[in-house]
User: Fold these one by one.
Assistant:
Number 1:
Amino acid sequence: MGVIEGVNSPADLAKLDDEQLTTLAGEIREFLVHSVSRTGGHLGPNLGVVELTIALHRTFDSPTDAILWDTGHQTYVHKILTGRRGDFVSLRQGGGLSGYPSRAESEHDWIENSHASTALSYADGLAKAWELSGEAERRRIIAVVGDGSLTGGMAWEALNNIATADRRMVIVVNDNGRSYGPTIGGIAHHLSTLRTTKGYERFLGWGRRTLTRTPVVGRPVFGTLHGVKKGVKDIVAPQGMFEDLGIKYIGPIDGHDIDLLERTLARAAQFPGPVIVHCLTHKGHGYAPAETDEADRFHGVPVIDPATGRPTAAPAPTWTGVFSAALIAEARRRPEVVAITAAMPGPTGLSDFAAVYPDRCYDVGIAEQHALTSAAGLAMGGAHPVVAVYATFLNRAYDQILMDVALHGLAVTVVLDRAGITGDDGASHNGMWDLPLLAGVPGLRVAAPRDGVTLTAALAEALDVSDGPTVVRFPKGALPAELPALRRSGTADILADWGNDVVLVGVGPMSQTCLEAGRLLRDQGVEVTVVDPRWVLPVSEGLLDALRGARLVVSVEDGNRQGGVGAAIAAALSPAPVLALGIAPQFLDQGKRSDILDTQGLNPAGIVESVTKAMVSLDN
Ligand SMILES: Cc1ncc(C[n+]2csc(CCOP(=O)(O)OP(=O)(O)O)c2C)c(N)n1
């Protein structure tokens, strides 16, 4: 039996000696590689925090003490140590173990939102609450934040507040130098300076030993040196940024040395105020294919062969790939086109663009708000920025797209990847919020292409718009086959025309689903037309032309139906009856995209059922 089998709760860690702890770390790594290679998931980040997580759970008393993981993608080891090792077979699957912390799963999980840079704000609030309730003396708060997540504005808003009070809090900076790719920007540069500079503590130790041995002048010189501590610190190890804020800084320390981690964390826990422990870790540590992967150190992997790290399935063409190629083609003939990513050049398809046009691509860090307003500035200066983000992260930048871009009538194109139901990553990753958010932005136009051809066309059309923002949204996953139109009505495509008693309107990839539902209805003798609006918001004249005269209009979108495209069509056609199908506002558990669509009735049979019911009630 391995050591790992005997660890079912943090308390079990206390019994282990140094040798057993080293063995445990190795066994956890082996377990992670074998388990995640079968399910897919965040492998690299978790391989990097094995020792750190062991040390945290040995030093602190979770859940009496709160360990708050920023982003939460690096909590697999935490899950293993808190009794969930047996559930990894179902990682990220419907009804299985969540890929992020989950409050329903464990009392050890506090935050389950996978959006980055929030842990320090949660920590600040929790510290205030425990101060008010009198629990602050007996409970500790530990926030673990990566160097990538430290590039997010929220982290700095939190630090600014944390620094002004002397509430106890241990902030562990898990610095592996990477977000997906290398972490960018001044903060990353500062951390790397700390990483490479001789530690201040070591310098002071050297100063004390050397100078106090020097007769007469030595002691006074050391005293002066100690007195002007801050200045010396900035020369030797410029941790100034944190200490200038008013937060004690310890480090950098080796984040793979359990004993050193424990001693340092224990020291930090005694400090009567906020303290930063700067830990250096390696993403993908101990697994060669991850350690040598230049792109992202196996940040997130599909199902892979554990021996080689290679995906077991042949890569299929993706929406992201079509966007990436289309953007490069557009940039070739439009010198004003530039691209912006918020720390996700690979996943959003911008790394290929950056390889061709390095001077026209900006990675701004995990800073969606800044990305949008910086894009506004670029547009003011004559560029046409394309901001590529996952749909779920656009939520962060709503005010910026509304006030900084749209109010100014600036030509910024936002490309939303992973729009609609994404599935495996659970509630916080579904891109189901964008359409209702964007529907209320004056002057903003949204395209939802249904296949690769319409995606390429939508991007070109968006880049032609010069008087306001445009959005092009598409889902996660494999690209569907091309779906040609019968004819155009303005900017809308008529996909099938078997009479117009009922008109089905499919948003983006739901056009294909509507076409299949249309065929079933036609076979039942219903006169039905299927339309893809392509440009879904605001509701276009061409679409309205195709809808007028129908007895029933049914729209289908794989997002929040409250205030979405269907609601906009209903408002435009009122009082004509419109059935707006989509997802009722809710946080959906993880599962396969197709399974979730089935349970929401957003498949051909479900649409037919809804249409039939609506027609019956119209007839009565
Ligand atoms: C607001 C937001 N934008 C983008 C992401 C996508 N994302 C997930 S993890 C990650 C990088 C995080 O880097 P770091 O905090 O250093 O953690 P590491 O994976 O390196 O351990 C990014 C950009 C996110 N989770 N949240």
Number 2:
Amino acid sequence: MSDIVRCTSCDGFGWFEDEFSGIVADCDWCDGVGYVYRDTAGVDRHIPKNDLKKPEISDKLEALEAERMQEMGFSGTAKKPWQQDIRKGTQGGINPYDSE
Ligand SMILES: [Zn+2]
């Protein structure tokens, strides 16, 4: 069975944003999925859309995506509630250790 690896072209994003025009386009390499199959010969292939519905594939992709988010610092558990911008101004967004 082929491995699933992060798309080397878009680094798992699945799309590109043109920094000059701001136009967003799907990545051709992975067909917008962000991940590709890598066979034993080291050749990368699209993951067919039908395969995305298979539980063993979607579970694997979800795990890879969680890993990627953590690498980028988007872990929801590593940050305290008051360190999350989205919670500013809410009860959870108040730092209990802040003396002000
Ligand atoms: Zn890609």
